[in-house]
Design brief:
Elements lengths: L2 E4 L9 E7 L6 E2 L4 E6 L4 E5 L4 E6 L6 E3 L3 E6 L38 E3 L10 E4 L9 E7 L6 E2 L4 E6 L4 E5 L4 E6 L6 E3 L3 E6 L8 E3 L23 H4 L8 E5 L2 E5 L1 H10 L17 H5 L26 H16 L2 E9 L1 H11 L8 H15 L5 E3 L4 E3 L4 E4 L1 E3 L2 E3 L2 E3 L6 H16 L13 E5 L18 E15 L2 E15 L5 H16 L7
Parallel strand pairs: 24-28, 28-29
Antiparallel strand pairs: 1-8, 2-4, 2-7, 3-6, 4-5, 6-8, 9-18, 10-17, 11-13, 11-16, 12-15, 13-14, 15-17, 19-20, 21-30, 22-23, 24-27, 25-26, 29-30
Length: 537
């Protein structure tokens, strides 16, 4: 029987998600545990796995599309099964107006066995907010209250940590999104209840909330609460928990004792440059809280001992679409194409003299990279096997020569393409490369100007890099890495003299280019570079 898969809530604040990438396509067989898609949330991009087995019959959202939580994502069932009546049966989920767990009102009381209930005919008192057990992971069905950080009657401010909740993934801190008095605790420490069960009630002090009750019959006994913070997800289930940016009770170790620090206190300590290992926590279970950081005074005791003078910190920079694309394409290339590398050192004295002569002409400015691009294009004409693409059923050898030239930009790397480069002069190649490099840095390159390369050149010589290797820019079969021209002692005609050399490395896809073929290509390229006049013959 077909199963409808909806957009999951992969973080506690997630309201909508974007399908970054499908790992399966319609018609593919799916096993329980297979990764269906990568979904971008408000926190991070996560892998979403299937909980069903069958055939992927329908995809409800294309790559790049965004939809609300609970919108139709996919349908899995038996091959050939009629699902026409199921498509469109799932309405897009509505988004709440704030990043909070749903407040229970008379109109949205959940009806599952662990849900909150309100006595018939009883309306919520003014200002009262009902907090339910949140869904803190995509597979969470129930949660255990490991510890309460507030007790009934305590004043609660927005952002205060209410409790530590143990999910199927990890133990997480759960903060309040409301301000008021904690009027009722629905689940005691150690109690387990289904998602949406009554967790707490917050409202004006003295409000009668006896009419608000929660059915936690599904609760199950758990281990002693004092052990709860030690319960972390096993390595096999760390994938989602490690990327969900829910505030987590962060353990620190000082003198062999595990302690915890609230996210607000940790942030404040980082801003003040205070090592949290030296702060004594006054919160429950020794937790370091905001006032501990604010009141911290460095101690002179034990000054003779080693004390860390810095703090560990990270800056989280969201991955741009360009960075995601680079990671995806180069990862696929490195792990699908069997790379091998060939390196040669070239005598650059004649090339330097030729470039000086060419640039002496008014209005002409040719770089060494332009000469390398031209030499590669001509060498490809003599060794067409290098100018090829691998396909499962056949190897495609391109009759045209389009040279990709790697250009570094602020967000990463782009590869504009100089088309029919073997038919262009040094100066024509130079003009084309400069124009496209300028457009690349100003983000004005068109998609057509970045497609169709049959070979790629990557040059880091201008940064002083003597030698390096590159990852093949698929579907190309090879890429040339060009190092800096260096001055060094060389042997010429039996004598040691001062010369100039340049090291280049050819990365080849062994599926299409054999070692001897790559070596012959480099031999031809070397002849062209070391004797530039041969490129005019």
């Amino acid at each position: 029987m077909a199963e409808i898969i909806t957009m999951p809530r992969l973080s506690d604040t997630m309201e909508e998600g974007t399908v970054a990438n499908w790992l399966k396509k319609v018609g593919d067989a799916v096993k329980e545990g297979d990764i269906l898609a990568e979904i971008e949330t408000d926190k991070a991009t996560m892998e979403f796995e299937s909980f069903y087995e069958g055939t992927l019959l329908h995809i409800g959202l294309a790559e790049g599309e965004t939809a609300y939580v609970d919108a139709l994502l996919a349908i899995i069932g038996d091959a050939g099964e009629d699902i026409s009546g199921m498509i469109g049966s799932v309405a897009p989920a509505t988004v709440q107006t704030s990043n909070t767990p749903a407040a229970v009102t008379q109109d949205n009381i959940p009806d599952n066995p662990g849900s909150t209930t309100i006595n018939a005919g009883t309306a919520l008192p003014a200002g009262v907010q009902v907090i339910t057990m949140p869904r803190l992971s995509d597979t969470m069905e129930e949660g255990t209250v490991a510890s309460w950080l507030k007790k009934e009657g305590d004043t609660v401010a927005e952002g205060d940590i209410l409790a530590e909740i143990e999910t199927d993934k990890a133990t997480m801190e759960f903060e309040s999104f409301y301000t008021g008095t904690l009027l009722k605790i629905g689940i005691p420490e150690g109690g387990t209840a289904l998602v949406d069960a009554l967790l707490a009630v917050i409202g004006p002090k003295g409000t009668d909330v006896s009419g608000i009750t929660g059915n936690t019959a599904a609760a199950a006994p758990v281990a002693e609460v004092s052990q709860a913070p030690e319960k972390v997800a096993p390595a096999a289930t760390e994938t989602v928990a490690s990327v969900v940016s829910v505030p987590v009770a962060t353990p620190t170790v000082a003198d062999g004792v595990r302690r915890f620090i609230s996210p607000l206190a940790k942030k404040l300590a980082q801003e003040k440059g205070i090592d949290v290992a030296h702060i004594v926590g006054s919160g429950e279970h020794g937790r370091v809280i905001k006032r501990d950081v604010e009141n911290y005074q460095p101690s002179t005791a034990g000054a003779a001992h080693y004390v860390p003078v810095g703090i560990e910190s990270f800056e989280s920079i969201p991955n741009s679409q360009m960075r995601k694309t680079i990671a995806k394409r180069l990862g696929e290339s490195k792990f699908t194409a069997p790379h091998y590398y060939l390196t040669v050192e070239m005598d650059m004295d004649h090339a330097m003299a030729a470039r000086t002569a060419i640039n002496s002409t008014e209005g002409v400015k040719v770089s060494f990279n332009d000469m390398v691009v031209k030499a590669c294009a001509m060498a490809l004409r003599k060794h067409p096997q290098v100018n090829s693409q691998w396909e499962n059923q056949a190897t495609k050898i391109a009759k045209h020569i389009h040279m990709g030239v790697a250009v570094a930009v602020a967000d990463g790397l782009v590869v504009p393409v100089v088309k029919f480069a073997d038919q262009l002069s040094f100066s024509q190649i130079g003009v084309a490369v400069k124009e496209m490099a300028s457009k690349a840095r100003s983000k004005k390159l068109t998609s057509d100007e970045m497609q169709g390369s049959t070979f790629t050149v990557s040059n880091l010589g201008m940064f002083g890099i003597k030698e390096f290797t590159s990852i093949i820019n698929q579907p190309n079969s090879a890429i040339l890495s060009v190092g800096a021209i260096i001055q060094k002692p060389v042997v010429k005609d039996g004598a040691i003299v001062v010369g100039h050399t340049m090291t280049v490395t050819l990365a080849c896809d062994h599926r299409t280019v054999d070692g001897a073929t790559g070596a012959k290509f480099l031999q031809t390229l070397r002849n062209y570079i070391e004797q530039p006049v041969t490129m005019f013959v």
